[in-house]
Amino acid sequence: MSSRVWLPLMAAVAVTTSAACAGNSKPQTPIAATIPVERPVQLDPALAAPPAPDPVTALIATSQKHFEAGERELRLGHLDRARTEFDRAVDVLLESPYGARTDARMREHFDRLIDRVNAHEVTALAQGDGFAEKKYEPASIDELLKIATFAKPPADAETTAAVKDDLARTAHDIDIPQNSRVLSAVELLQGRLRDYVQESLARGANYLPMIQNVFRAEGLPLDLAFIPIIESGFKTNALSKASAKGPWQFMIPTAKDHGLKTDWFIDERSDFEKSTVAAAKYLKMLARLFDNDWHLVLAAYNGGQGRVQRAMKRAGKDDFWDLSETQKFLPKETREYVPLILAGMIIGRNPVQYGFEVASAEPVAYEKVSIQRAIDLRRVAEWTGTSVDEIQALNPELRRWTTPVRYPDYEVKVPAGTGEQFRTRLAAATSDDLTTLKWHTVRRGETLITIARKLRVSKTELAAANNLSTRARVPVGRDLIIPRAPATLLATRTERAAPAVAASRPLSGTGSVPDSLRASTSNSATYYKVQRGDTLSKIARLFNTSVDKIKSWNRLRGNRISAGTRLVVKKR
Question: What is the mean pLDDT of residues 135-145?
């Protein structure tokens, strides 16, 4: 029992004893005497108060907190916020009264911190330089036709009855025969491919209202809206082995014939709204060619109108099911394609009948903002308070991390409700705020080949980025976009020097602390850790600077550098 508890208790006992004595003349045994007395525990003074916090541990924890916050912002594509957090992770060390490198733990954390931030910058250069093309997913049509061709099961009695009942009660605007091939395709979609179809239906719920509105306006059957279940699973970034792309799987010539732009910066085959309008035009054109026989239209959509017309001429038949009875006239993929599409229409119209969940239709909500200059998508994400993944999802036609160059009044999509704040930030932005694109002004005597060789970029990429043929002559004075990794928007390190930094030890490795770290005035710099095989000229080209500047910033007398050295490669 502690002394704090023990003393009040004894006082209470004493009062009780006195009162008892006053009311009874007989001698009373003191109550306190019957209670075992516990001596107060003497606490060790060292344990009486928590130990004082270790300032070095606290500083390292604060620095790590800012670094982790920077990583979270970087994953969202927020370069300014990531840079601010990374800067602060370094600054809390540099500004501390203990110095960034006077303690062994601080030295280890500081060196590791710089390495990790540099690694993030290199990653940003490689993945977000504005020129790396985004990755695409394999189109489902390739795998589905492969499965249907070699492993399509016959329909059982339950499926046959379900389809018969469904077609009797559900109105379709395309004729759907209840033959064995269509029934077998339904069996495949609701059986082996159930998960795929469920995911497609869930994804398509966001787009079906828009597709149906477009097709309704064009006078097309609404059953056609379910074609993407088979073609792409409603994925905007689907790319087939034959290089067809987007939810409607357009080849480039067909896309261009129906108003879709495809160049180095954009591919409108991936834009759901634009490609749906093009699909409506294409389907109407095929309908005119085949007298509104939608089975032949679907065959032509897959195999090409010329191939179907030739097959009809050779066979002397104009019915798809007659043409597809043998292997003589149509490819096997086309013969299996039409039943799969019809099965997709059956399930799409009435998914509950086949055990699928009905996904709620929530049209994608966005605003369009007209922009006059190219802008990095990470800027768009940061200025609208969202992630770069969401901006890319809203703008799937953009092939790279930047909006296109030389597209006057290009409209970028931003989340609903963020358009005004984005316009405000855009109006106040400078050219340096918008993108990391690099340019080269053509001089007398230069050609695409000599420029590409001089700047060490691909001649093909150089031509494509500037919408030129590889044999084109470029006029003197024209500005060309240089498709290579520029210094990223992230790669800036603010290192405010504290008095302790001037006396800090050299950085690990073979180099020493750059003079910019010892400066007494605030400055911003980008650092680069020399890799094996690097030369000053190679590094200068990477960061679009000169060897002389790098030597001046780092007080280098010669051109020799060692792997592991950290160099200042950019100042502002």
Answer: 86
Indicate which residue of 85, 231, 268, 367 is catalytic: 231
The distance between the two most distant Cα atoms of the chain, rounded to a whole number of Å, is: 134
Query: CATH assignment of 439-481?
Result: 3.10.350.10
537 neighbors 498 (Cβ within 8 angstroms) = no
- Closest C-alpha to 544, from 437, 466, 443: 437
Q: 410 near 403, Cβ under 8 Å?
A: yes
What is the residue whose two structure tokens read 């009264």?
97
Top CATH class, 55-127: mainly alpha
Give 3-state DSSP helix, strand, coil % of the chain, rounded to 5: 50, 10, 40
Under the banding of pLDDT at 50, 70 and 90, the label for residue 496 is: very low
Distance CA 194, CA 191 (A): 5
pLDDT band at 124 (very low <50, low <70, confident <90, very high): low
Q: Check: CB of residue 474 under 8 Å from CB of residue 468.
A: yes
Decide if pLDDT at 140 tops 50.
yes
Q: For residue 200, what pLDDT is reported?
A: 96
Tell me whether domains 366-434 and 439-481 share a fold: yes
- Residue 54: per-residue pLDDT: 81
Question: Which tokens belong to 308?
Answer: 């179907």
Alpha helices (H) along 446-506: 448-455, 459-465, 499-502
Active site residue 218: no
